[in-house]
Amino acid sequence: MSSSKGVAIVTGSAQGIGRGIALKLAEDGFDVAVNDIPPQKARLDEVVKEIEAKGRRAVAVTADVSSETDVKAMVETVVRELGGLDVMVANAGIARYSSILETSVEDWDKINSINLRGVFLCYKHAAAQMLSQGRGGRIIGASSMAGKKGAALSSAYAASKFGVRGLTQSVALELGKAGITVNAYAPGPVEGPLLDAGIRSMNDTIAKSGGSTDLKAALLGMTAVGALGTPGDVAALVSFLASKEAKFITGQTISVDGGINFD
C-alpha cells in the first residue's frame, strides 16, 4: 500500500454522488471514511470493499448528519480508526418539491436539517479537528444549481442550498489563515437516486395540479452540453478541491451543471 495523502470523510456516500466522490478520493490516495444513515449500512460496507480493493484503508460510520451528537461521534471515530482528518466532504442531502402553499413546516425543517444544518455540523466539527491538528485541511460542501438560481416548487430545497453558499463563504473567512480552505460544489442534473427521487417528487406535485411534463427532457434542454451529468463529473471537481493544488481557492461554490448557470 502506498503512503496515504490523508484521511477523508464523505457523508451520504452509500450511493450516487457521494459514492462517486469516495471512490475518486481513494483513487487519489486518501484513506476514506464513508457515511450514511443506518438503513444504508449494507451499501456502505460494499463501498468500503471497493475502496479497499483500490489499496486504501476505509471505514463505514453510520450517522445522521442533522444530529450534532452523531456528527461529533463520527469525526471522533474516524480520527481514532484512521488517524486524523484532512478532507471533509459534507455531501449528504435530500430533495423534496412542492408549492410554497403545500410545503409544511415539517417538510421545511426536514430538508433544512439535512441539507443545511447537516453541512454546518460537518463544517464545525471538521474545523475543530483540523485546527487541533495544525496541518490545514479541506472542507467541501454540497450546494446545487438550485443554490445559484431558485425554481418553482423548490422553495425549501433552494433555501437550503443557497444557505450552504453563505455558510461556505463565512467559514472560509474564519479558517483561511489556518490553511483550511472551504468550498462547495453546485451540481446540476446528475444521474442517480437523488435526481430520480426529485423527479418523482416534482411529477407528483405537477400531477396534483392536473399538469404533466417530461422533466428529464426539460432538464436536458436546460444544459449547454445537452447531457445529464454523472457522479464522476462531480467527483472530479471535488478531487481537485481536495488537492494541495487548490490551496488558493476558498469561499467558492463552483457549478458543475453542464452550463445551466453561468457566474
Automatic annotation (TrEMBL):
One of its GO terms (biological process) is fatty acid biosynthetic process. One of its GO terms (molecular function) is oxidoreductase activity, acting on the CH-OH group of donors, NAD or NADP as acceptor. The keyword Iron-sulfur does not apply. InterPro entries: NAD(P)-bd_dom_sf, Sc_DH/Rdtase_CS, SDR_fam. It holds the Pfam family adh_short_C2. The keyword Transcription does not apply. PANTHER family: 3-OXOACYL-(ACYL-CARRIER-PROTEIN) REDUCTASE, SHORT-CHAIN DEHYDROGENASES/REDUCTASES FAMILY MEMBER. This is NAD(P)-binding protein. The lineage of its organism: Eukaryota, Fungi, Dikarya, Basidiomycota, Agaricomycotina.
